[in-house]
Amino acid sequence: MKVALVYDWVNKFGGAERVLEVLHEIYPNAPLYTSVYSPNLASWALEFKVKPSFLNKFPLAKNHHELYPFLTPLAFESFDFSDFDLVISVTSAHAKGILTLPSTCHICYCLTPTRYLYSGFKDYFKNKYFLFLSRPLLKYLKSWDKVASCRPDFYISISENVKKRIKKYYLKDSEIVYPPLDTDKFFIKDNKISDYFLVVSRLVNYKKVDLVIKAFNELGWPLKIVGEGKQMTKLKSLAKKNIEFLGRLTDSKLVGYYQNCRAVIFSQEEDFGLVPLEAQACGRPVLAFRGGGALETVIEGRTGTFFYPQTQKALMEALKEFKVRDFDPEICRKNAELFNKGNFKKNFKQAVESRYKKWQK
C-alpha cells in the first residue's frame, strides 16, 4: 500500500510535529506534502521527503505562511495524489482540503477543526477593526472549510474534546486515537525538587502565558518559561525579575527542567496537549485550566489539580492551595504511560487499517 502524509505547514515544532515523527516511524516511505517548508525552522523534518506547494516560492511564505491565507486552500488543492492508495492528512487548518480520486482513500487525523474559524475565533480576532477588515476573507475561508471538511473519507480525532468539535462544526463522526508520548525520552529522576514552577508553551496569544506571568508577578514566586513565539518580546516586557525565559530547549535539557520543577502550569484550553503528559512522565504534577484536553490527561487530586475560571485570580488561588507533597511521582508516571508511543502506534494502525478495509468494500 502506497501512503502519503499531508500537514498544514512545516515551519515549527510542537505537539503535532511529534505526532508526525511517530507517523514517519509507522510509514517510513511516505512523503510529506505541505503548503510551506522551512528547513531552518523545522530540522525535525529533515528525515522526511518533504514536498511543499507552489506557495513555498512566494516572498516570506516559508516563515510567515499567515501572509497568504487566501492562497493556502489552493496550495493543498494543487497536489496530485493519484499514485497513492492512502493519504493521511494531519491538520488543524487546511490540509484536509486536498483533492483525491475515487481510487485513493483519505483519512484525516484531525487536531481540531480550523482553530481560527471556530474554537479559537475570539482569540485570533480580538481587535474589532482587524475583524471588520477580515470579514470578506473569513467568509471565503469558512465557506471553503465547510466544503473541505467533506473531502476526507474518514476522521480520526485526537481527543474527546476534538471529537465533539468535529461533530459540531463538520457534522462528522470520528474515532479517538490519543497522540503519542515518548515515555523513554521523558522519565523520572530521583532528585531534590527545586522551588520554581514551569511553563512549556509556544508564546502565542491563545496559550494564555500572560495570565501566568501576571499571577507570578504578584506572587513573586520563581517561574521558568520554556518556548518561543511571536509574543516573546511582549511577555518579557510584562515579566518581573522572578520570571526567567529559557527560549526553545532540546528535549534532553527540557527533561531536566520538568524533573526539577514543583509543578507545570498549563493555562490554556488545548485540543489535547502533550505538555501535561510530559510533565507527568517526569513524575511532576500539573496545575491546569479546567477545560479542553487536560480534562482527559490530568487526574484531579492524583496527578494534578485544576483552576477555573481562566483568570489571574483563580490561578493564584489554586497556586496558594497547591502542595507538592499531595502528589506521588510514580502515580503521575503511571498515568502518562497509558499514552505511550507503543500504544499510539498500535491504536493508530488498527484505526487506519479498519477504515481502509471499510473503504475498499
Describe this structure in words.
This protein is α/β, with parallel strands linked by helices. It folds into 2 domains: 3-180 and 341-360, Glycogen Phosphorylase B (Rossmann fold); 197-337, Rossmann fold (3-Layer(aba) Sandwich), CATH 3.40.50.2000. It contains 13 helices and 13 strands. The protein has helices spanning 15-26, 72-77, 121-124, 128-148, 160-170, 209-219, 232-238, 251-260, 275-281, 294-297, 312-321, 329-337, 341-360; strands at residues 3-7, 32-34, 50-52, 86-91, 105-110, 154-157, 175-176, 197-200, 223-226, 243-247, 264-266, 286-289, 304-307. It has a 7-stranded parallel beta sheet. Strands 8-9-10 form a 3-stranded parallel beta sheet, sandwiched between helices. A 3-stranded parallel beta sheet has the order 11-12-13. β8 (197-200), α6 (209-219) and β9 (223-226) form a beta-alpha-beta unit. The protein is globular. The model has no long low-confidence stretch (mean pLDDT 94).
Main features:
alpha/beta; Rossmann fold; globular; 15% strand; single chain; 361 residues
Q: Could you state the order of secondary-structure elements as H and E? A: EHEEHEEHHEHEEHEHEHEHEHEHHH
- Report how far the terminal alpha carbons are from each other: 16 Å
Which structural class should the secondary elements be placed in? alpha/beta
Binned, the helix content reads: 25-40%
Strand percentage lies at 5-15%
Q: Which of globular, elongated, flat, extended, rod-shaped describes the shape?
A: globular
Rg calculated over all Cα atoms: 20 Å
